Amino acid sequence: MKLRRVLGCYGVLFCLCQTSAKFSQSANEIPQAERRKIAIVGGGIGGTSCAYWLQKAAGDSIDIDLFNYGKIGGRIATANVNGKRYEAGASILHPENKYMAQWTEEFGLHKQDSPDGVGRMGIWNGHELVFEESDWRWVTFFRMMRRYGFDLLKLKFHITDMLAKFSRIYRLQEQGNAFDSTVELITAMSEDFTPQLNVTLRHFLKEKGYHDVFINELASAAENCNYGQSSDELNAFVGSVGLAGAVPDLWAVHGGNFQIPQKLVEHSKAKVISAKVNHVAKTADGKYTIRATDENDNEMDASTEYDAVVLALPLVRDSLSLSVEGVDLNKHAGPYQQLISTFVRGSPRAEAWHKTAETMPDAILVSDTKLFYKSLGQWVDVDWSKGEPIPTTGTDRVWKVFSVEPLTNAQLKALFEVIEEKNEVRWLAYPRYPLHDVPKQPTFTLSHGLYHVNAIEWAASAMEMSAIGGRNVALLVLRDFFGAKTTGGDHGASAAKPATEL
Ligand SMILES: Cc1cc2nc3c(=O)[nH]c(=O)nc-3n(C[C@H](O)[C@H](O)[C@H](O)COP(=O)(O)OP(=O)(O)OC[C@H]3O[C@@H](n4cnc5c(N)ncnc54)[C@H](O)[C@@H]3O)c2cc1C
């Protein structure tokens, strides 16, 4: 049986435009300005993207201090199994993720080739494999059409349309458009997206005439393994982003996705301060100071004054470890979904899915959101290159299991007959999207000179989304502190003034 890298299965996706134009500086150029000092808190893709764009536009007019707790990359990180590194957090990029693709090229990195062959994915509903790919493409196609019929065609049109609209953001940002709120940014891509933020994915698909079997199996499995949430919880926009991953040519960065934020921070010339920020205070003349503790928990010097502070981290409701003088961050915070990536080197218990070792799919996506695991699939390491052998049988295969809670020994035993090695990574992975839970007005601008990149996550969370959020906040800083001419409401994609509430 040929093996694939199960990319298609875990595809969080994201969209972008087809153009291969290099980033131009034209629209983001700024008039000669007074030197400004900016603090960015958070060294994931959102914070490092913001630093990169600020440096690109403001050059020597800007000094950036980037505070980060832990490794640069945040939720983009690898885990070691048997001496090799595997993507433990954000793994998959969509073929149309423009920023991630262009940075890969600009920084001399390479896309990792997928292993040959189609591999096989199966959808498990808790009792049976309701759908299974074949080694033969046409058999897979026939099975898909027989089970999901024209809903597949409808999905293809929906995703194509969505990607085309989504890709407008690149032009808008290139032209210097900046948005104070998430809803404004999403509406600027297309007014069709705005109502999608306010209905569940199930409601949206039902209205479009999709059948229950499609919603309960294919859509549910895709969302469950991507976001660990159901079609009744996810808004239709993030749900569509999840479904857009059902395309070929998903990719990753050879050597690890974390290299992108690392390179971004290098190119930004930001001073990286390895510290946890606890409090942001305001001075009498409207500047900001930062109280932080270093890796040994020692208080750091807090005398530096900043013109602006960019928060590039999730604000997790009721467990905020960071406060800002005069701003109630809880109003901008929401719940986050825990997800556990458990790597197991060993062999799965094929009979758990009524299979034999030979017939077992390479990836199992679970459509029943109440089951104790969300997905299970074989992975290759980040340094794997085309032509290198990949074990297709035996106990040297490496499997990644997603679950909401850590797997107990009994649960692991139910899934694997041999466990040679186990490595577990815990994440607060994504916002929890139930409509009543999300902040009512996710905003990038929290107050004058204070910004929040991750407001974008309340529309949808992914590497490319944070990269877009980072650029948006850079544009806001350029507008507010460097006199850059940016627009927000009049962006040409939408005539009406967008609503600002979810
Ligand atoms: C298991 C998992 C799988 C995923 N799969 C995909 C995928 O396949 N494709 C995809 O596109 N996306 C995926 N994602 C989502 C993706 O990882 C995120 O959307 C994206 O990486 C978020 O980047 P960020 O910079 O906004 O936030 P983070 O990456 O969370 O960065 C925030 C940074 O701020 C630091 N920080 C926090 N508080 C403080 C403080 N007080 N002081 C200083 N520093 C602080 C953190 O340590 C961290 O380094 C996945 C996420 C997870 C967890």
Automatic annotation (TrEMBL):
Pfam annotation, one family: NAD_binding_8
Domain Prenylcysteine lyase: 131-482
Keywords of the record: FAD, Flavoprotein, Glycoprotein, Oxidoreductase, Signal
Signal peptide: 1-21
GO biological process, one term: prenylated protein catabolic process
Cofactor annotation: FAD
Keyword Chloroplast included in the entry's annotation: no
Name the UniProt record assigns to this protein: Prenylcysteine lyase domain-containing protein
